[in-house]
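Hi, here's the filled form for the chain we discussed.

Project: internal
Contact: R.S.
Residues: 507
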Amino acid sequence: MLSPLVILSIVVGYFTLLCLISRWTSQQADNQTFFTGNRDSKWYLVAFGMIGTSLSGVTFISVPGWVATSQFSYMQMVLGYLLGYAVIAFILLPLYYRMGLTSIYTYLETRMGPRAYQTGAGFFLLSRTIGASFRLYLVAIVFQFILEKAGWTPPFALPVALSIAAIYLYTYRGGIRTVVFTDTLQTFFMLASVGLTVAWIARDMSSQGAGMIEAIQQSSYSQIFFWESGPKNFFLQCLSGAFIAIVMTGLDQDMMQKNLTCRNLKEAQWNMMSFSSVLVIVNLGFLALGALLYLYGHQQGILEESTSSGTFQLLVQDKGTGEMIARGTDYLFPILAIDYLPAWVGLLFILGLVAAAYSSADSALTALTTSFCIDFLRLDSTQTKAAEASRIRQRVQLGFCLVLFATICVFQQLQNAAIIAQIFKAAGFTYGPLLGLYGFGMFTRRNVRDGGVLWVCLAAASTSFLLNQMAPTWFGITIGFEILLYNGGLTFLGLWLISRKSDLETA
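And the returned structure, exactly as it came back:
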C-alpha cells in the first residue's frame, strides 16, 4: 500500500517540475504570450500535447471501466473523430488563420453581430467550466479514495483546492506558451503509465505479444462494431463522434487556442491530422487496458460484475477483509493499481493520474481566462496599459479558479453514471448551440436579427433537454450522444426563422 508520504512526494515532485518549465517558458511573457504564445509553437509539440488534453483524467479512468458495459464500441465514435478533425483541419482552421483570430468566437461578431458573439462565447464558458470541473472532480474523488486507503482522510475540498492552486501557480504568467510544453510532458507520463501497466498485466497473465491480443479478442469485451439499432449503432456513433470532435475541438477555444499558436496554417493542419491519427491508436490502447484489467480481476478472483440493482456495478474484493464491495466502474483502474498490482504500477498510476488531471485543467483554465478577457472585457482592443491589462487577466484567472472549485464541490453529489458519459451528454446541451451558430454562419448568407440569437440558443438547448428526458415515453427510444445533432439542428432552424436574405442573396 502506498503511504500518504509517497503519494504527496510524487505530487510535489511533479508540481516542482511543472513550475521549472513554467519559469523557463514565461520569461518576458506578456498578455500576448499568455493568449497566443506569440504564435511560435512547434506543431509537433502542440500535436503531442493535445493528446493529453483530449484524453484527460476522464479517459484515463472512465474508458477502461466502461469496457464491461460498452465493449470496444467507443472506437466507433473515435473513428468518427477522424472525420470531424478533417473538417477542422481543412474548413475551420483556414477560416481562423485567415481572420487572424485570438478568440475563435470573434468570427461570430464579424458574421452575425455582437450579441451572437457573446452568446457563442458564453456557451463556451459554460461548456468548458462544466467539462473541466467534471474532469477535476473525477481525479479528486480518486485521490480521496487513495488517501483514505492509505490511512488519511482529508476533506474532499482539500485535494480539489490544492490541484486548482497548483495549476494557477504554473500558468498565471506564461499561459498558453507554458501549457504547450507542460502538456507535452504530461502526455508522455500519461501514455507511459498506461503502456507499462498493460505490459505488466500481459506478462503476469502470460499473454505477451500476440497472446495478449488473442486473449482480448476471445473475451466478451472486444466487440467494436454494432450494426443493430440502438445507442451503440455504428452509423449513429460514428456520426456523433464526428460532430463531437467538431464542437469539442474545432469550436472550442481551449483546443483551438493551442492550434492557433502554430506559426502558420500548414503547420496547424499537420498538427491536427497527426494528432487525430495518433489519438485513434491511443484510445484503442485505453480500451485494451480496460479489457486486461477485467480479465486480470476475474483471473485473480477479486472481481465480479453485478446488475442486480438495475445498474452495472463492480464487486471488488476488499484486500483486508476479503468481503466483496460494490464500486462504480470508474474505480476499476484505481483499485487494481493501488491494491493488487505491484507498488511501482501504483506509482505509475498516481503519476499518470496527476498528468491527466493537469493536462486538461491547465489548458481549460487558460482558455476560460482568454475567452473572458478577449470576448467580454475586450482587452485586445482597449487602450489599457500593458501592466494593468496583465493584472486584470490574472484576476480573471483567479476568479475562474474559484468558479471551478465551487462547481466541483457541487458535482460531489453525482452518483453511479460513468463520468465520460456525463461529459458527452452535457456537451450535447451546451455545445449544440455553437454547432448551430457556426453551421448557420458558414453555410448560409442570411443575416440574423442579432438580438434574438441568445433566445434561439436557449430555446434550442431547453427543447433538446426536454426531448432527451421524454423520448423514452413519447417515442420509446433512448437518445444518446446524438442529442448534440438535434440541439445544433434546432439552433440552425431557429436562426433561419429570425433571419432575412442578405444583399448578396437578393442581388
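Let me know if anything looks off before we file it.
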